[in-house]
Specification:
Number of strands of chain B: 13
Largest sheet of chain B: 9 strands, mixed
Oligomer: heterodimer
Shape of chain A: globular
CATH topology of the largest domain in chain B: Peroxisomal Thiolase, Chain A, domain 1
Largest sheet of chain A: none
CATH class of the largest domain in chain B: Alpha Beta
CATH superfamily of the largest domain in chain B: Thiolase/Chalcone synthase
Shape of chain B: globular
Structural class of chain A: mainly alpha
CATH superfamily of chain A: ACP-like
Structural class of chain B: alpha+beta
Order of helices and strands of chain A: HHH
Helix content of chain A: 40-55%
Radius of gyration of chain B: 18 Å
Number of strands of chain A: 0
Distance between the termini of chain B: 15 Å
Strand content of chain A: under 5%
CATH architecture of the largest domain in chain B: 3-Layer(aba) Sandwich
CATH topology of chain A: Non-ribosomal Peptide Synthetase Peptidyl Carrier Protein, Chain A
CATH class of chain A: Mainly Alpha
Helix content of chain B: 25-40%
Number of domains of chain A: 1
Strand content of chain B: 15-25%
């Protein structure tokens, strides 16, 4: 899941330099609407409802992957 | 001196409300109005930039009662041209029968309308009798329809202005600025010589993109500075301020920073969204057709956008 998240993030935030350890808000074109776009694309890619509160701008992409993996397991 | 003789506009008939943007989940559609004060926008169906630009020019000619053969110059301000070449202005010239004019494009993105007025003003001073500036934009075809960060915030539209050495508003002071260090902030990456079609790896590169936060701060800063500079240089208090119509919150913030009440700003962004280079001239046309314009004498225009570029203008009613 982390690889897919990184691919989506690179695309949405137009940033080839982000790493799994980067915080979301550190991405080059991070802003509130790009974050919404990222959540929409995550929801589509993983076929799950993702609430805004589950994707915090201060978390790293690796932490986000762990959270979404856990959610998927519970589903 | 150069004067505005008349103005006109053309907006495509196809009106799309936020609720009709069904590609986005309902809970996010309401964000569009919260973030930018935008309720709807117009989109072309089959038309291109020159088609709607020509509609605005035709209306201008009719409204002004001027023969197309009397037009000396046609300037098209656009950042969404029909094609990379030739100039979109040349097709508008052909459609409108401006046989004695020469026609060319300029691209200063959302500041394009003001840049057009400056060039037109210089050409009038240089001896041209009748110059038309048409600002025409079709952003609906530059935007990724699935990108909620850009698609809802733009619309299509065109406005045209006739300038001559006499008219209703004198172009009293026109200021232009640019800062090329921000040339990547607002862009359509692919299709030019920097990233030709043969080198494109991601479809996203064909679409418009911008750094939203940086654009917001730039627009608030430069919009405020322009208005204060025009007031200081001309020692005048504007009756009406017409800024680039990108986002209601930007206009409100400019009002807060300049201590000018919101009521003195002309606002139509809720109807048309951001029509880029056309927006300030569409707003000018709607203002000049309003009752308020009859009672007011001093108008400031201010626009800001890709480049980064910005520009302002003081229009003084010709008594």
């Amino acid at each position: 899941m982390l690889n897919e998240i990184m691919t989506l993030a690179t695309d949405v935030f137009e940033d080839d330099d982000i790493l799994p350890t980067s915080r979301l808000e550190e991405a080059k074109r991070f802003d509130s609407m790009n974050l919404v776009q990222f959540i929409i694309e995550l929801s589509d890619a993983f076929e799950m409802d993702i609430e805004d509160e589950e994707v915090e701008k201060t978390m790293t992409f690796a932490e986000l992957a762990k959270r979404l993996e856990a959610k998927k397991r519970l589903k | 001196m150069a004067f505005i003789v008349n103005t006109a506009q053309y907006l495509p008939v196809n009106e799309i409300s936020n609720d009709e943007l069904t590609q986005f989940p309902p809970k996010y559609r309401q964000l569009i109005e919260e973030k930018a004060g935008i309720k709807k926008r117009r989109h072309v169906t089959d038309e291109c930039t020159s088609d709607i630009g020509a509609m605005a020019v035709k209306q201008l000619l009719e409204k002004s009662g001027i023969n197309p053969l009397e037009i000396d110059v046609l300037i098209c301000a656009t950042s969404s041209p029909d094609r990379i070449q030739p100039a979109t202005a040349t097709r508008i010239q052909d459609i409108c029968g401006l046989e004695n004019a020469y026609a060319f494009d300029l691209n200063s993105v959302c500041s394009g309308g003001i840049y057009g007025l400056k060039i037109a003003s210089s050409l009038i001073k240089d001896g041209a009798k009748n110059v038309i500036v048409v600002a025409s934009e079709v952003y609906s075809k530059l935007l990724n329809p699935k990108d909620i960060a850009t698609f809802p915030y733009f619309g299509d539209g065109a406005a045209a202005v006739l300038l001559s050495d006499h008219g209703i508003y004198e172009l009293n002071d026109i200021l232009l600025f640019s800062d090329g260090s921000g040339c990547d902030v607002i862009q359509v990456p692919a299709g030019g010589s920097m990233l030709p079609a043969s080198a494109v790896k991601k479809d996203r590169d064909y679409y418009f993109s911008m750094e939203g936060q940086r654009v917001y701060h730039f627009a608030c800063e430069k919009g405020s500075e322009l208005i204060e500079l025009l007031a200081k240089r001309n020692e005048v208090v504007a009756d009406r301020i017409i800024t680039h119509q990108a986002n209601l919150n930007i206009i409100k913030e400019i009002g807060r920073r300049t201590s000018i009440p919101e009521e003195r700003f002309f606002i139509n962004v809720e109807k048309y969204a951001n029509t880029a280079g056309a927006s300030v001239l569409i707003a000018l046309n709607e203002y000049l057709e309003s009752e308020e314009a009859k009672k007011e004498d001093h108008v400031f225009l201010a626009a800001f956008g890709g480049g980064l570029s910005w520009g302002g203008c003081y229009l003084k009613k010709n008594m």
